[in-house]
Design a protein that fits this description.
GO molecular function: glycosyltransferase activity; metal ion binding; UDP-N-acetylglucosamine-dolichyl-phosphate N-acetylglucosaminephosphotransferase activity
Largest sheet: 3 strands, antiparallel
Number of strands: 9
Order of helices and strands: HHEEHHHHHHEHEHHHHHHEEEHEEHH
Shape: globular
Strand content: 5-15%
Subcellular location: Endoplasmic reticulum membrane
Family: Belongs to the glycosyltransferase 4 family.
EC number: 2.7.8.15
Number of helices: 18
Mean pLDDT: 89
Bound molecules: uridine-diphosphate-N-acetylglucosamine, magnesium ion
Strand order of the largest sheet: 7-9-8
Enzyme class: transferase
Distance between the termini: 51 Å
Helix content: 55-70%
Radius of gyration: 24 Å
Number of domains: 2
Length: about 450
């Protein structure tokens, strides 16, 4: 690994110093915790950036290394660097605690008897002042930390033992237990608002009971795994995570604008912002090193950790349905992958696009079927239909039997549609598509909810 260049050292030091100054000022002046969160995220970015450089070679020495399969001369680079992000992130959110709760702790413990403070304590109860973060949020914050720390430990386990897909699929459910336990003892709300057209049959609210916990567990399993399987080209794991985080943060801002205050959901969206800003900070530092041509790999630790950050903010912030709208490309990729994930079509260990060393471009990777391992005829017929509607590319033998199919991932499908592309070009196009689909999802969310639920909860 390279050491930091002089420019990098000066830039990172300057950024850290500026962020520290903001932090000191925020503490002294009892300022807005959002600025403190931004400053801590800046420091987290600088620290992650430097740590990746300083410790990359140690990962290789310890055997955490991977071969970049899409390069002319494949070199081994550090793997599982997402661990640095996760650890710096956990450190960042712990250090942010005093800034988020300082004023409330002071109000609650020493405010009694003082008229002004009593007045402020009333606002504190309603939790509608942006700069206030009610003390009861401390539990959500703590359990979010517990869930993310558990996820990081289990991610390291996966990166260390290279577990089989069918085993590691359920790992996030264990990590989500702290969060689900908090939900059980603290909120316990398991009913959902029924859309207008269905109300005449089931009423305005429907209690899902235990199924609601299954639904939350499913989200906790889905978010990390679907990031892990939309992978295999430089920058795509981190890139998609940054896009999702930015889209959630954008949605949060809609609820935090002064024009819609006081808003009952402001707390939840502030909670989400406080968890997302440092995430964006550490992820940008990782992206710089994982972007084409990658100097490090992120590892499953990062994919699980990132997915769980989204599951935590979606579930504890009470906007899990909106969250799913921001995962549309990942949901598509998951459903599209299902035939291979569930063994209907054989699934190779790696499904990432194939690198053509002659052209330097990526092409769709394929799975081939031989006489020893033939494809069931009915599956073959289904693949031919998908080929006809351009959702796959198959090769057929003389007898008309399918002998080869492109692997079932959105990256390969994009290459089927667009033709061979350079690795970074493919990443940019997928991320641009994801951003456009996410923005569309949010637009639909805020315009159609008026039709389905009588009002958009933003107003
Ligand atoms: C998931 C995918 C697998 C894909 C892999 C790529 C499923 C079920 N699994 O497996 O198809 O091939 O991610 O990450 O869909 N690598 C590169 N370039 C990159 C990123 C990764 O060559 O930009 C290679 C490296 O050799 C690296 C390895 O992929 O060491 C990491 O694979 P890993 O994350 O362990 O694979 P899975 O998550 O199990
Ligand atoms: Mg992976």
């Amino acid at each position: 690994m390279q050491q930091l260049s002089q420019t990098e050292t000066y830039s990172l030091s300057g950024l850290s110093a500026a962020c520290l100054a903001v932090l000191v000022n925020a503490w002294k002046s009892d300022g807005e915790p959002l600025f403190a969160s931004l400053a801590i995220s800046g420091i987290a970015f600088a620290f992650t950036y430097a740590c990746i450089r300083w410790t990359g070679h140690v990962f290789i020495k310890r055997g955490y290394k991977g071969r970049d399969m899409s390069k002319k001369t494949p070199v081994e680079i550090p793997e599982a660097i997402g661990l640095i992000c996760a650890l710096v992130y956990l450190l960042a959110i712990v250090n942010f605690l005093p800034f988020a709760f300082k004023r409330d702790i002071v109000e609650v413990t020493s405010g009694a008897g003082n008229k002004v403070n009593l007045l402020e304590a009333q606002h504190l109860e309603t939790g509608r002042f942006l700069h206030r973060f009610p003390l009861e949020k401390l539990a959500s914050y703590g359990f979010a930390y517990g869930t993310l720390a558990s996820m990081t430990i289990l991610g390291i386990l996966d990166d260390s033992f290279d577990m089989r897909w069918r085993h590691k699929f359920f790992i996030p459910a264990f990590a989500a237990l702290p969060m689900l336990a908090l939900y059980f003892v603290d909120f316990g709300v398991t009913h959902v608002v029924v859309p207008l057209p269905l109300r005449q049959y089931v009423g305005e609210l429907i209690d899902l009971g235990g199924f609601y916990y299954l639904y939350m567990a499913a989200i906790a399993i889905f978010c990390p795994n679907c990031i892990n399987i939309l992978a295999g080209i430089n920058g795509i794991e981190v890139g998609q995570s940054i896009v999702i985080a930015a889209l959630i943060a954008f949605n949060d801002i809609l609820y935090l604008l002064p024009s819609v205050q006081p808003h009952p959901a402001a707390d939840s969206h502030l909670f989400s912002m406080y968890l997302l800003l440092p995430f964006i900070g550490v992820s940008l530092a990782l992206l710089k090193h994982n972007w084409f041509p990658a100097k490090v790999f992120v590892g499953d630790t990062y994919c699980y950790f990132a997915g769980m950050v989204f599951a935590v903010v979606g579930i504890l912030g009470h906007f899990s349905k909106t969250l799913l709208l921001l995962f549309i490309p990942q949901i598509f990729n998951f459903c599209y992958s299902a035939p291979q994930l569930f063994g209907i079509v054989p699934c190779p260990r790696h499904r990432l696009p194939r690198f053509n060393a002659r052209t330097g471009l990526l092409e769709p990777s394929v799975t081939t079927f031989s006489d020893d391992k033939p494809l069931r005829p009915i599956v073959g017929e289904a693949l031919k239909i998908l080929h006809k509607v351009k959702l796959l590319r198959v090769q057929q033998g003389d007898s008309g039997r399918v002998t080869e199919t492109t692997n079932f991932t959105i990256l390969n499908l994009w290459l089927v549609w667009r033709g061979p592309l350079r690795e970074d070009r493919l990443a940019v196009e997928i991320l641009a598509m994801q951003t456009a689909v996410g923005l569309l999802g949010l637009w639909v969310r805020h315009s159609c909810s008026k039709l389905l639920f009588t009002a958009d909860n933003r107003f």
